[in-house]
Amino acid sequence: MAVTLATLSACNGGGADGDKGAVGGAGVAKPSASPSPKSFAAPTRFSLDQSILLPESAGVGKSAMGKQFPMPVALHNGAVFISRPDGLDAVSGYAKSFPVTITSEHEAVTKLKDVGGGFSSDNPAEAPLITPFGRKTWVLNAVVTRVTGAGTTKSHDVVELMAVDTANAGAKAWFTEIALPDEYPAGDQAEAYVVGRGGDTVVVFARGQLFGVDLASRQRIWVAPGTYSKGAVVAGGRIVAMRKNSDTEQVVGLDAASGKDAWTSPRTGKELSAAGPDAVMTYEKVQDGDGAQNFLLDAATGAIRNTLPKDAPGSDCAYDGAAVTVCVDGSVNHKVAAYDLKTGQERWRLPDAAGTRVAPTVSLVRAGLIYGMANGNPVVLDAASGKDKENQPGIAPYIADGYVGITHTKDGPGVTAYRAVG
């Protein structure tokens, strides 16, 4: 962490070729000589007195009509990396600092200053991918930009996949361009993000297409056949995605190394979410006329591990990092349940059968814990048992690591990082 923040503090933009695209004036201020804060593998308490207000990019254009959409933020040892529709912001999450902005090589089709108006969630940015490769840890972000033609050469759009080394977070280390077709669905002009990584392949989604980029060569190596809905996941060595077929969709598994079909679900797909390192949860119709149900699928083969009861929550799921998948039904009859990752059997559900406990509004599932709100206050639950673990955590974070938790600013606008203290 000290290495990352020290290199951020030295960043002033410009400089050598590797620094191209960095702006931000004085860069991120170096923290004081006081000892680095303690890290907690699974923090349950956060200090309201030790907080850092994050740049506008962390939350602008990511909420609508009271609903919070995933923030475009990822953490690495307390350093905050924020995807923008026109670049990437880097800032310390626990020390006062100035953010550094990494910009695209070409002009972005949508700029941060143009999002966040009205009541719609119009920020296309999604959280960057932080992944180790070789001896470095990379922050990867995708931005749609416009390449202006020279002479009579036609202008065209590309996805710029940019990489930042966490040990030198104030500079762009490398980038690659992925050509895009001229046609795209209405409203999806700037939609691009990094889905995940399978082996040495990074998967990028843009304008309904999926692309594979080899981390070693830093070049695009495949384009998946067909068009897809947003929300693909990487699990079990596959890219599991919703492929569009005329007026319906199907869940398919693609080989991460080649982008070719590995399996196709025989059912009509409705929803898809990650359920673990080798599993996904789907919401599918078996045949026309029947209602849809939730299926826990093996990501490598598409085989059904379990079919959930029709009243089971399963439309929005997240792996706890240990042994269970936590799913939420956000309808009027709000429910939360946990399922065994291997068998799909239900471990527990809230509200409970006795009617003595309510279901929390879940903000984050991580490291065997569930963070959320219940009875108007933050709460932390044990994911394996569903029991309360901490009733005064300070905040209900949307993103967290061992150093900080990130949520909306207490008693004010914006997004803030709060120090983990227990």
TrEMBL record:
Pyrrolo-quinoline quinone repeat domain segment(s): 249-392
Pfam families: PQQ_2
InterPro entries associated with the record: PQQ_rpt_dom, Quinoprotein_ADH-like_sf, WD40/YVTN_repeat-like_dom_sf
Transmembrane segments: none
Protein name per the record: Pyrrolo-quinoline quinone repeat domain-containing protein
